[in-house]
């Protein structure tokens, strides 16, 4: 069996390492167009080379021991020692990237430098002389385009060949040919240090260690265990250099390294004459999108555009969601371009399908009203729940109405039955009894279909985010937020996990690991999940569709509220002694804008969407089956009829805690059951609402939920808004809570995080409902006073003077 | 309860139990499509199917 070859993929943040790693290994690692996506190294097997392990290292700017990413990379490169290095360099920013490359070269390992984004370099008309760079840095240099999958595999094969050829010994080894980039006196001091540490380190890396000793890197000096006398001798050489060059040792190394790179660039990089001194397209765009005043409105506008497409009336998201909810997952739909007026003889001849359905609904209402002894019949508006039409009825009208049969959709065009209809039909054909049919149709399928019905909205949101991320805009958002957060003593570094959190709260909490400062890290973990994640998007989508069709901006406002909580919550926490302190530094490189590839955007979107669809089957389905059982059985395990649901286990459980939600406007067993079950997975709130309201009067799942909120009081929209905000801003799902506890490092801090999130979500829902009711003329009550006091407390926490 | 109802009931309950078992064993699926559980080696990735660990 051949020995495995380890290749380290190293480079600056956002230089394309993970994109190349995925291309080389066939992995599906998360790729983000902002720095800090990779916190820990990840392994993969090079496609077609079973013996070659590619290790994707976190992106770093140097091999200093300051940040977590630097420590991880340095430890691996120096101590574990790969067989060779594939150094990925951003060709559009080659000068700055070479700083790290010179350090890598000093490690003495075989190295291939892959200059990425060559497609952009060529498009810009710039020229890079690979030969001169290769000669100066003593390594191979090749051009690639990771995004277009060009040249990456060739570079990898070249580095594998070098690793196999090279007899790199892990022991003393032989002195490698490494670049000498420093001036005479520095080189002289380094040579002395090399002599002193010989035998203590592998010979191939002796120069790297010597430079680190020159820089007085404490970690390395401690590791080498240099004797006092020897260290004194070394110190003399370092001080001589510092005296001669008028700077401290670390700065001397840094500045001379840059001088070397500048000289190298002068002879190897030929920028397009026409571009010299001119602003690039990215610079021009950035003038607007990172503008001091315009930046934030542009960001909010982009969020509004996303939500407009997703949930606005007659927008693509709503049209597709309606089709999914009412057609594909429910009764069925007419194939586009096949619909026509009814041609068959009968009551519906010459009518469109919708008109025929309307006539049938009126006939049903007439029959029901006459049989109930009424003299008037009416039908309600599905959207508003208000009476849409009312008419007088008599026996003749009743008899005529009884003649109506449900219109056959097949008479109005090519009808494709929906999944709900197919399941119901199959169960009817099999002769399944009503109870089991209710379990399958209302319980299992009903819950799953409610969640899946909002896939179009989620798809549009994820597609939009993937586009913004891939084109480079999201990195600007981090920059904008850094500028904003810094004013309040917070770091933009905390915003990266929050950007990740738009997809899912779990990786968002974990991404906080990249923050070195413990206080800032804890604060980020507490705040990261306030950005509504993909699952919470379902709740937004459902309430936008049922209650705010004409106010689509309510959906966009939920994202804005999430960001506002992060900022205001951050300010309030910073003023406590637990989180006080300076904001940590945040280095952010803005990638050049580029048109995202279709496959890249699709890959991002599908990967997120896939998990969401899977979750409907693996989490929502069993949860709905369980909820159906406890809703249809009492404590003695007797099966209950639909009208006996008030004796059910779920009803009792919900009722016991309903008082908690009373001040928020949805203090019923249904509201309590939906809110608590949302801790399984946030979208479960929508599925549970559908399940627990299905027994109520109405014609569709949407109407059930509307009727439920209408029955709660005089302000159904405010109760719905309160329910939505409570479920969006209280602690996230159970998995995210478990990860929060782990990342917080102690039970005490875990409970603090959950307590803070619970307080914020509750106060927000309470304020929205109680103050909303007050302004809508619903009067002032004890809970209005509590809401005002809670808001005043929050304002005091935010605006009180800092103790720092 | 007739035979068809019993069969459907058993299928639904069995599927739900299998799904629940998978979630408890492997963790709920995450946004990358893989299963999500807390990684034992604290590698920083959110999904164990991502790194194959």
Beta-strand level of the residues of chain A, as a percent range?
Answer: 5-15%
How large is the radius of gyration of chain A? 33 Å
Task: Please tell me the total number of domains of chain A.
Answer: 3
Derived from helix and strand composition plus strand pairing, the structural class of chain A reads: alpha/beta
The helix count of chain B comes to 2
**Contiguous helical run count of chain A:** 34
**Spatial sequence of strands, sheet with the most strands of chain A:** 2-3-1-4-5-7
For this entry, what is the oligomeric state of its chains? heterodimer
Binned, the helix content of chain B reads: 40-55%
**Terminal Cα span of chain B:** 47 Å
Radius of gyration of chain B: 16 Å
Give a short account of the largest sheet of chain A: 6 strands, mixed
Number of domains of chain B: 1
Identify the overall geometry of chain B. rod-shaped
Q: Which pair of chains forms the biggest interface, and how many residues does each contribute?
A: A-B, 47 and 34 residues
């Amino acid at each position: 069996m051949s020995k495995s070859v380890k290749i380290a993929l190293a480079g600056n943040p956002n230089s394309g390492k993970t994109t190349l790693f995925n291309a080389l290994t066939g992995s599906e690692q998360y790729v983000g167009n902002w720095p800090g996506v990779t916190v820990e190294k990840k392994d993969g097997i090079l496609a077609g080379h079973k013996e070659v392990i590619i290790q994707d290292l976190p992106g770093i700017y140097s091999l200093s021991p300051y940040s977590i990413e630097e420590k991880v990379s340095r430890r691996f490169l120096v101590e574990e020692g790969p067989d060779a290095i594939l150094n990925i360099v951003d060709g559009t920013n080659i000068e700055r990237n070479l700083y790290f490359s010179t350090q890598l070269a000093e490690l003495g390992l075989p190295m291939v430098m892959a200059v990425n984004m060559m497609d952009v370099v060529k498009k810009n008309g710039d020229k890079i002389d690979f030969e001169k760079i290769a000669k100066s840095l003593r390594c191979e240099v090749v051009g690639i385009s990771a995004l277009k999958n060009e040249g990456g595999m060739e570079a990898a094969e070249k580095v594998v060949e070098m690793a196999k050829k090279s007899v790199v010994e892990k022991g003393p080894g032989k002195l490698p040919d490494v670049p000498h980039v420093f001036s005479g006196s520095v080189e002289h001091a380094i040579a002395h240090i090399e002599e002193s540490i010989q035998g203590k380190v592998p010979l191939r890396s002796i120069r790297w260690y010597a430079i680190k000793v020159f820089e007085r890197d404490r970690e390395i000096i401690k590791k080498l265990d240099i004797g006092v006398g020897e260290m004194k001798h070394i110190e003399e050489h370092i001080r001589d250099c510092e005296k001669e060059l008028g700077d401290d040792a670390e700065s001397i190394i840094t500045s001379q390294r840059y001088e070397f790179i500048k000289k190298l660039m002068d002879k190897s990089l030929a920028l397009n004459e026409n571009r010299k001194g001119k602003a690039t397209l990215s610079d021009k765009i950035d003038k607007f999108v990172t503008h001091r005043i315009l930046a934030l409105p542009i960001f909010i506008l982009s969020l509004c555009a996303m939500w407009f497409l997703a949930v606005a009336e007659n927008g693509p998201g709503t049209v597709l969601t309606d089709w999914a909810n009412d057609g594909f997952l429910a009764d069925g739909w007419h194939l586009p371009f096949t619909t026509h007026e009814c041609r068959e003889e009968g009551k519906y001849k010459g009518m469109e399908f919708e008109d025929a359905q309307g006539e049938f609904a009126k006939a049903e209402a007439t029959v029901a009203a006459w049989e109930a002894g009424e003299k008037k019949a009416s039908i309600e508006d599905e959207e508003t729940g208000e009476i849409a039409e009312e008419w007088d009825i008599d026996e003749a009208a009743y008899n005529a109405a009884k003649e109506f049969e449900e219109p056959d959709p097949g008479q109005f065009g090519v009808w494709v039955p929906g999944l709900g209809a197919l399941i119901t039909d199959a169960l009817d054909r099999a002769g399944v009894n009503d109870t089991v049919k209710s379990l399958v149709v209302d319980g299992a399928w009903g819950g799953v279909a409610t969640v899946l019905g909002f896939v179009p909205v989620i798809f549009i949101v994820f597609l939009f985010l993937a586009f913004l991320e891939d084109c480079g805009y999201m990195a600007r958002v981090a920059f904008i937020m850094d500028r904003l957060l810094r004013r309040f003593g917070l770091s933009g570094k905390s915003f990266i996990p929050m950007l990740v959190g738009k997809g899912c709260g779990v990786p968002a909490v974990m991404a906080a690991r990249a923050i070195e400062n413990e206080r800032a890290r804890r604060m980020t973990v507490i705040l990261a999940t306030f950005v509504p994640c993909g699952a919470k998007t379902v709740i937004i989508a459902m309430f936008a569709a049922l209650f705010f069709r004409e106010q689509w901006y309510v959906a966009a406002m939920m994202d804005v509220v999430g960001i506002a909580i992060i900022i205001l919550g951050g300010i309030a926490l910073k003023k406590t002694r637990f989180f006080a302190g300076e904001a940590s530094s945040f280095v952010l490189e803005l990638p050049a804008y580029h048109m995202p590839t279709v496959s890249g955007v699709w890959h991002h979107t599908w990967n997120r969407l896939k998990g969401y669809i899977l979750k409907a089957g693996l989490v929502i389905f069993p949860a709905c089956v369980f909820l159906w059982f406890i809703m249809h059985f009492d404590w003695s395990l007797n099966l209950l009829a639909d009208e006996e649901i008030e004796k059910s286990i779920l009803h009792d459980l919900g009722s016991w805690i309903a008082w908690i939600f009373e001040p928020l406007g949805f203090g019923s067993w249904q509201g309590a059951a939906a809110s608590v079950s949302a801790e399984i997975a946030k979208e479960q709130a929508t599925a549970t609402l559908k399940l627990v309201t299905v027994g109520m009067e109405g014609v569709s799942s949407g109407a059930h939920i509307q009727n439920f909120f209408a029955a709660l009081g005089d302000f159904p929209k405010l109760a719905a808004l309160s329910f939505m905000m409570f479920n969006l801003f209280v602690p996230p799902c159970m998995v995210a809570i478990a990860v929060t506890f782990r990342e917080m490092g102690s039970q005490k801090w875990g409970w603090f995080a959950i307590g803070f999130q619970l307080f914020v979500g509750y106060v927000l829902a309470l304020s929205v409902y109680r103050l909303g009711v007050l302004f809508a003329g619903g009067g002032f009550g004890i809970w209005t006073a509590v809401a005002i006091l809670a808001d005043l407390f929050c304002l005091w926490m935010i605006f009180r003077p800092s103790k720092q | 309860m007739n035979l068809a109802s019993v069969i459907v009931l058993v299928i639904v309950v069995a599927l739900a139990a299998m799904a629940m078992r998978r979630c408890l064993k492997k963790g709920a699926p995450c946004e990358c499509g893989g299963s999500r559980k807390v990684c034992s080696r604290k590698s920083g990735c959110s999904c164990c199917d991502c790194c194959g660990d």
